[in-house]
Amino acid sequence: MRERRGVRGHRRASASGHHRPTGSEAERLLQLQRRAGNHAVSTLVARQAATRRQPNAALDLEVPDFAVPLDRAVVARVQALLDEDKFQEAIDRVVAAAASMGIVDASLLHGRKVLYTAGLQGGLTRAQFSARMRPPSGPWELVLDRQSVRLGRSVMSSPAMLYGALLHEWRHVRMNVRWNGAPLSAPPVDETFEISALPGLDERGREVWQELDAYCWQIEHAREIGHSGHEIRQLLHNIQSLVGASLSRLSTLPATIADPARARYSRAVATARQLLANIP
To answer: What's the CA gap between 46 and 191, in Å, rounded?
Structure first.
């Protein structure tokens, strides 16, 4: 379930990307123009354009909390598909159910599809970024070009495990979307650059933080997802072995991110143990 990202290439923004006001906004600007003249309008438009170009804060990466149990009929149908080794159909059914509840949006993915990959362990979210310079000679910013999600054989053991893996990877998808438009502290070098070029971030610490977020979220919503005791034990093992062993890398991040992340990790481990203690 570990997330990987590729970041390559750069391009300049096209001149056709300027904002066009909506009907109500156009009427308001026209009224202002009549009252204060072209100079006032130009000043207002420039200020609004600058505000619109402000990217999501590089360190403001919280994703809304949202999990809904699958309908029993969906669970039964997915289980039947899994029993028949029809894994791609099972994924499609779970994605469709999650989309109908507003949890996932396949339009964010390349090909609008979550793919089954037999040789993959767990899940994998991959994102391809590039960079562009804001016209006419403004700072460089990160651009999310495409991303994909794949799920492997190990998460096809039950409908809940499949659903949980999908939502785990969707945390990564949503995080990637939040990076879109983030400022770069330096222009790309030799056609390649890393997300660590973002101000105040370290690549290794960021990866640990995002994986910690996805595992903690999955444990925090284990009941809604429908995880069994065996699956919760597996999640506890994963978060301790894949994330717990790398917590020291959080020290490369600002304390305002690292300290809450460590506390959340401890709470997630305690929650998993409490859930296991209450399972007969």
So the answer is: 31
Rounded Cα distance between 90 and 212, Å, is 27
Residue 66 — very low, low, confident or very high, per pLDDT cuts 50/70/90? low
Q: Select from 169, 155, 148 the least CA-distant residue to 213.
A: 169
Structural contact between residues 198 and 142, judged by C-beta atoms closer than 8 angstroms = yes
Q: Residue 132: which H helix or E strand, with range? A: strand 123-133
Nearest to 127 by CA among 91, 179, 167, 88: 179
The reported pTM is 0.73
Provide the token pair at 122.
Answer: 């767990």
* Distance between CA atoms of residues 160 and 79, nearest Å: 9
pLDDT tens digits, one per residue of 86-126: 999 999 999 999 999 888 888 889 899 999 999 998 999 98
Type of residue at 37: G
| Phi, psi (deg, nearest 5) at residue 68 | -135, 135
**Cβ neighbour number for residue 32 with a 10 Å cutoff:** 14
pLDDT digits (tens, 9 = 90+) for 121-161: 899 998 887 777 777 666 778 788 889 999 999 999 999 99
User: Per residue in 249-264, pLDDT tens?
Assistant: 888 777 888 888 899 9
* CA-wise closest residue to 240 among 273, 205, 277: 273
**Total H helices, total E strands in the chain:** 9, 4
Q: Could you count the other beta carbons within 10 Å of the beta carbon of residue 58?
A: 20
